[in-house]
């Protein structure tokens, strides 16, 4: 077999292993090891090459940004800032029809700006927002749907773990990617809020028998200051310092962790027991991401040795489907893969394959990264995988709300994400204007 044929066979084996249920990093590692072994003819050499790829990846200074932002997100979650974001957002939108749903979107947007983890947003607001919306007459389907839909803001509004992962895979500036995610994230939040507002006026039964204004809490100026100021300070500290150039993304994560710890201690909402649990959870998530990135580098190294990316690039270039044909085919493939794989795995599999193709077309990799994140995030809301949906289901105490209810409730938000995807494809300035 030629190296190209071995590379394609390894890719096929990896896909089969994933569909059989093997954890994606292990599937990537096994297929990579087998591919390099067959290409080089030595299992020892294959092991050494892949070990070198792994050590080079983890020893990278830029990898330090992952555990720092994960730690900050968990500290923010346990210190009660999610509840504060919900209260502040509801106070701001309480006079609008459908205001509780719009407030949930706003709270998720605020929470996203200081965490960067979609599943954290889904877990927090399932416990906070869903009972409150159902108490005010919103249907269960809409209540869980708005939480599922708006939770994806956590991977688009910076800081975002997926943007960090994309930056590591493509060697692009994480700071530039963060800046590029701001406008699309804000536009998506506005689309979600506008969609809820229009539904409340044109088809109020779609939201249930809502009654927003009867007993919504009205915060005094002092309460608004106490709840809103820590959030504003932390967002300003992390993103303001990053965009102003005072520190790098890694330093921003460290400063954000310190700020979150100080705020939690000052509010007396962060105990030693909570902090120990946060450290454990951060270690587990970081180890999981670490395995993913190591596997991705092994997979990329095997592909490079086999020549598959170069051949794939030549094939696409000679296929005469044009720039938009390639981009739309890629986006469609990402969305389809989102039905069965998690976000990180899709990026680890497809981005290394596309990089040689993009290089020949001189595509802006920052813009392409935002396109990739939006398309990948649609998969968080699509059956049968939809990881955000499963997180919400596991956080619910109501057995009457089924997975089907959550998927159907999230469907309108997935459609609005497709609208945003179309806007960023047609108007690249949405992703690049602030850079």
From TrEMBL:
What are the GO cellular component annotations?
plasma membrane
Fetch the Pfam families from UniProt: DctM
Membrane topology summary: Multi-pass membrane protein
Role? Part of the tripartite ATP-independent periplasmic (TRAP) transport system.
Entry's PANTHER family? C4-DICARBOXYLATE TRAP TRANSPORTER LARGE PERMEASE PROTEIN DCTM, SIALIC ACID TRAP TRANSPORTER PERMEASE PROTEIN SIAT-RELATED
As for family, the record states: Belongs to the TRAP transporter large permease family.
Q: What is this protein called?
A: TRAP transporter large permease protein
